[in-house]
Design goal:
The complex is a heterodimer.
Chain A: H1 7-22, E1 29-35, H2 45-56, E2 60-66, H3 69-82, E3 88-91, H4 96-101, H5 109-115, E4 126-128, E5 131-141, E6 144-147, H6 148-153, H7 163-173, E7 181-183, H8 194-205, E8 211-212, E9 215-216, H9 221-235, H10 248-256, E10 260-264, H11 270-276, E11 282-285, E12 298-308, H12 315-326, H13 328-338, E13 341-342, H14 351-354, H15 356-367, E14 369-371, H16 380-395, H17 401-413
Parallel strand pairs in A: 1-2, 1-3, 7-10, 12-14
Antiparallel strand pairs in A: 3-12, 4-5, 5-12, 5-13, 6-10, 6-11, 8-9
Helix pairs in contact in A: 8-9, 9-17, 16-17
Chain B: H1 3-42, H2 60-67, H3 69-100, H4 107-122, H5 125-136, H6 141-148, H7 165-190, H8 194-202, H9 207-235, H10 239-244, H11 256-265, H12 270-297
Helix pairs in contact in B: 1-12, 2-12, 3-7, 3-9, 4-7, 7-9, 9-12, 11-12
The chains are: A alpha/beta, B mainly alpha.
Chain lengths: 416, 298
């Protein structure tokens, strides 16, 4: 049996080879996008957004590299060290200083200028050493959750708006004999984010700062006052026991089970709380402030940030993807799926009109400003751990708030 | 056979065993030696892993960890945690093995006890940590029972108090680890010839004398082997401590493994973390050599 190759087929093959060789049939640019968001969003939703991006930008394909938060963090650290970082990377503000020190992140300022990007539409641009390295795409704010039934039983009719009122309310809600406490403070060293979310949030809420001229200022009045306030809550027995090993999940569980009256927590947990205890009657309030403070309130937040690899060969295409995710409509869609607040100030997620609690939180969000001074700091988690240890010593009665602040300042200064 | 052929044949015979060993040597080299050598190399570099062009640091990172009081506290906690765990694993394992080997106990009850006693071995470290966190939390079952029977007057924060945390994690580890001793010693007990005890009975030996002069000497090789292995494994325990206390409160349960982990993944100081890991390696290596020498001597 003989195979005969027709001349037409040969011509087609030759033409295809030539097209390929001359680049006319150039392959699509494939962007790699590493993040931890996909597993935390409804199945297939981030892929659908990427499909829409690909349809709007012919010739660009996006490969999602997804994993849990901690795995992604390690993967990005190693990628930065070995020069194999994905073109586009999901970022936590706590990582950017280290990554910038490794020259792993591209400065997005020239890209913004070249494309005429309207900077006023983004909620924040994270800069390190003058380089724009990250945009927060979605923000998860941390208001105070109040169990209204416990508050009513304790005779707390007006929800606290100052620290003094908070202390009074916490005292009234505490009934240790019934395993019921006014507040919950998770300071586990396993995840020291309690320092950021549950302690420093008191400082930022009053428009204050833990820094001065880019350096730690923990011995200043704002941080010492905050420590003194937390100590007073502890001395009054209003904090649920087990502080030193309590994790954020346990904090939420205690609130869900009517064991604590108030907690500072991520808005992302609203649906979880409702699922775990549909009967729980709770409200959201901003973190209380120091006496007589009337300025704008800093609202602690954690964010899904985005940046571009400095070694990416497709920075132009990568910037298109970043711009796409930061655009008003797409950003609103993404944050609606994530139950987060938008990175684009014009975007309005749909849940704020359909859900009373989210609507209230959105009001708090709009009247305040996003505040998280750990974003961009070197070894942010290590700084939290160091502060955590000193706070634990203070709560154990081994040192005063001033001594705790001074010891933490010494440890932090060594890292700057 | 010519001389040349003979020497060729000799060479083939000499090389053949090494050729058979090559696959396993390659695997050991890739999976064990290479990572080990890499970590040792990192411990002598500045900004290891984080920079593509790390500079030579000499012994700087070793100096840094030896100057750190938290390292010495971690070493002390590791020794306490390990020694107490091994001693109690052995004691509890021995008592339970003797109980399960005792003919005077009803066989059905013995089978039930055998299943019950081995249960902790079936749980992973994460499950064990979660179980003990729930049991020992201030509002947990343990406090409730101890308060009801009047042993404690108020709730104890077992894992959250610097005074009790190290004892609490050690206790949880003892609970989790004794079945290894129990099973090994039970196998050993069943291998001791009955004649020894019959002869002892004829001589009028009491139960404790039989234990001291027959059972324990007969079990000694197993006791030493398992104790050494347990010592090496317990020194490296990480998940149980990490999940229950995270090395806290303050530094009261910081052990070498959590200390190293924090250096690597909290401080991103991978050079110092490598130096700390090398110290753990050297301690483990010393114990392993001791174990190998003991095995050879037998």
């Amino acid at each position: 049996m003989m195979f005969r190759i027709k001349p037409a087929m040969l011509k087609m093959a030759a033409a295809a080879w030539l097209l390929g060789a001359t680049g006319t049939m150039a392959a699509d640019t494939t962007l790699e996008f590493t993040q931890w968001w996909e597993p935390e969003l409804p199945a297939g939703s981030l892929r659908a957004i990427m499909d829409d991006f690909e349809a709007a930008n012919p010739g660009i394909k996006v490969t999602l590299v997804s994993g849990p938060y901690a795995t992604t963090r390690d993967q990005i650290s190693v990628g930065a060290a070995t020069g194999t970082l994905s073109d586009v990377v999901g970022l936590d503000g706590a990582w950017v200083n280290n990554l910038n020190a490794q020259n792993a992140l591209a400065d997005m300022s020239p890209m913004m200028d070249a494309s005429g990007f309207d900077k006023s539409q983004v909620a924040d641009i994270i800069k390190v050493d003058g380089k724009a390295v990250m945009f927060p795409v979605a923000s998860f704010v941390y208001p105070v959750f109040v169990n209204l039934d416990l508050a009513a039983q304790a005779g707390v009719t007006k929800l606290p708006s100052t620290r003094a009122e908070f202390l009074e309310a916490a005292k009234k809600m505490t009934h240790a004999d019934k395993n019921q406490y006014g507040w919950v403070l998770p300071l586990s060293l396993q995840t020291p984010s309690g320092v950021q979310n549950d302690m420093m949030s008191w400082v930022w809420a009053s428009g204050q700062s833990m820094m001065a001229n880019g350096k730690p200022a923990l011995e200043g009045k704002p941080v010492v006052d905050m420590l003194t306030f937390v100590k007073s809550l502890n001395d009054a027995g209003t904090i649920s026991p087990g502080i030193a090993t309590k994790t954020e999940q346990e904090k939420v569980e205690e609130f869900v089970n009517d064991r604590v009256g108030m907690m500072i927590d991520s808005l992302a947990h609203v649906n979880l709380i409702r699922k775990r205890n549909p009967k729980l009657n709770f409200d959201l309030i901003p973190v209380p402030v120091v006496e007589n403070y009337t300025g704008k309130r800093g609202l602690p937040y954690a964010s899904w940030g985005i940046g571009i690899s400095a070694v990416s060969k497709h920075q132009e295409e990568a910037w298109k993807l970043v711009q796409y995710l930061m655009s008003e409509k797409v950003n609103a869609k993404l944050v609606s799926l994530a139950n987060a607040f938008p990175g684009n100030v014009n975007a309005k997620p749909d849940f704020v009109t359909s859900d009373k609690a989210f609507g209230k939180a959105f009001e708090i969000f709009k009247t305040g400003y996003l505040a998280n001074e750990f974003t961009g700091l070197p070894v942010a988690e290590d700084l939290m751990t160091q502060f955590d240890v000193q706070a634990q010593k203070m709560l154990a009665g081994e040192q005063s708030p001033e001594q705790a602040a001074a010891a933490a300042q010494k440890g932090w200064t060594a890292k700057f | 056979m010519t001389r040349q052929k003979r020497s060729h044949h000799k060479l083939k015979r000499a090389v053949a065993p090494y050729l058979y060993l090559t696959p396993s040597l390659l695997i050991i080299g890739l999976l064990m030696l290479l990572p080990m050598v890499t970590v040792i190399a990192y411990s002598f570099q500045n900004s290891a892993v984080l920079r593509r062009d790390p500079s030579f640091a000499g012994l700087k990172h070793y100096q840094a960890i030896f100057d750190d009081p938290v390292f010495w506290a971690s070493l002390w906690h590791t020794l306490y945690f390990t020694c107490m765990s091994v001693i109690f694993h052995m004691t509890i394992g021995m008592v339970f093995a003797l109980m399960l080997n005792n003919d005077r106990i009803n066989p059905t009850l013995r089978n039930i006890l055998r299943v019950l006693y081995i249960l902790p071995w079936l749980f992973t470290a994460v499950i064990i940590a979660v179980i003990w966190r729930l049991l020992l939390e201030p509002n947990g079952v343990v406090n409730s029972i101890l308060m009801q029977i009047g042993i404690i007057g108020s709730k104890v924060e077992w894992f959250s108090s610097p005074e009790t945390a190290l004892h609490a994690v050690t206790f949880a580890n003892i609970w989790a680890g004794y079945p290894l001793f129990m099973v090994s010693l039970l196998a050993g007990l069943q291998g001791i010839p009955k004649d020894f005890y019959e002869a002892a009975d004829i001589d009028g030996a009491k139960a404790y004398q039989k234990l001291i002069f027959i059972t324990i000497p007969q079990l000694m090789p197993i006791i030493i082997s398992i104790s050494l292995l347990d010592f090496i494994w317990t020194m490296q325990v990480f998940p149980l401590i990490w999940i229950t206390t995270g090395g806290g409160p303050i530094y009261s349960t910081e052990v070498l493994s959590t200390y190293t982990y924090k250096l690597a993944f909290s401080s991103y100081n991978l050079s110092q973390a490598s130096a700390s890991a090398v110290v753990i390696l050297l301690i483990s290596l010393g114990l392993t050599l001791f174990y190998i020498r003991y095995q050879k001597a037998r």
